[in-house]
Amino acid sequence: MKRFQLFINGDWRSAKSNETFESFNPYTGQPWALIPRCSTEDVNDAVAAARIALEQGEWGGLSATARGRLLTKLGDLIARDADKLAEIEVRDNGKLWAEMRLQVGYLPQWLYYFGGLADKIEGSVPPIEKPDNFAYTRREPVGVVAAITPWNSPLLTTMYKLAPALAAGCTMVLKPSEFTSASLLELMKLVEEAGFPKGVLNVVTGFGADVGEALVTHPDVNKIAFTGGENGGRLIARNAANDFKRLTLELGGKSAQIVFDDAKLDDAVKGAVSGIFAATGQTCIAGSRLMLHESIHDEFVEKFIELARTARMGDPMDTKTQIGPVTTRPQYERILEYIGIAKNEGAHCVLGGSAATRSECGEGWFIEPTIFTNVTNNMRIAREEVFGPVLSVMKFNDDEEAYGMANDTPFGLAAGVWTTSFARAFTASKRLRAGTVWVNTYRAVSYVTPFGGMKRSGIGRENGKEAIDEYLETKTVWISYAGSTDNPFVMR
Predict the structure, then answer these.
(1) Is 250 considered catalytic here?
(2) What sequence ranges are listed for the domain Aldehyde dehydrogenase (predicted)?
(3) Candidate CATH numbers 3.40.190.10, 3.40.50.300, 3.90.550.10, 3.40.309.10; the one for domain 256-439
(4) pLDDT for 442-453, tens place per residue?
């Protein structure tokens, strides 16, 4: 098996304990790599390195333009090695090569964009009304950032955090999911080649109880950027509150796709399939609640099933494969449990509903694309995030009912709307309580557009110009040029 090492303070090393744990290939169900199992000692080393780099090392003395050039150089190196990084992602998390190669090839754009923003971070000169005084503001890095990322898109969710944080001048300790640590450790080789100063980027690997908690509660960590589940986000927020750390939380979703009776059905069917079965449904933005106008319900479901039946499952490295395995064994079991819950609740399973036993799936963790009709919005299958290829279909009879059903959820990450009416498109985009609303498309993301959720789907925004503000503090500076102070006991 391939053995990976930690990257702390610019050095490659084993965990202090010398312990490792196995990383599994979801397609074969077998371990393929050994990852260092870190402890609090390793976390302390990584945070100390990040703190020194911020306050005493070369990084803190670099100009903003020089920081931007380093980001751009890293982007060029990722573009050069995109095939290698994508292959590691596929082996570690089971997502399709066709998607991961495009995704990794897109990562440099984050570094180019935020690299360009690095020397455009500006303060201001407020027109104060007090005579004989001058005031201005400075934008300064928030400090040491702990970035904790999930297993479904390790490098992409890391880049959401890394690019704006480094552009702002922060230093970082990165903690990937214990299920998918390999690609981030491989990325650090390119960080080293790009010439980043020691301590700017550090990676610790391991489990939440051993590493995650130590990182979140560390007194020298100033901000936490987390992508993951609702329960993990809640625990992080509670721990972070003790030191009032800054937070960006991108959490779960239960996104609605609303198909109105005037929609182009064939396009909407493709969009709905993409929303729930692409990436095996393992995305926070999965369109897992499909809401159909009652007049088109039966025809739409028939078309949907017909297209979903054609989905090819199998080896994610095969470019013809359309649905790969579930990334982790625990998640595989969790999805099957939710399928059982839906059946017990009275939902009608019209496709799938079981583990996949096709020969092309081998020994991997595959689940058949699953569709439930006769779902009501109070069922667990409609309210809780399944994070798998499981769709809940519901009916509505007018626009108001559709908006009410879509918003009747504790989450608010994304939503989709399918209509040929501009009036409906604009109205729905306003009425839906979600951080992203797609109209006649789904799963489109960009480095220039803010991304994040409302309600239990999170705090803050990633991507776009707004993202860099999450990693900056604003300082106000007052300078008096008055000759004397009239009364020192009175506020000026």
Answers:
(1) yes
(2) 12-477
(3) 3.40.309.10
(4) 999 999 999 999
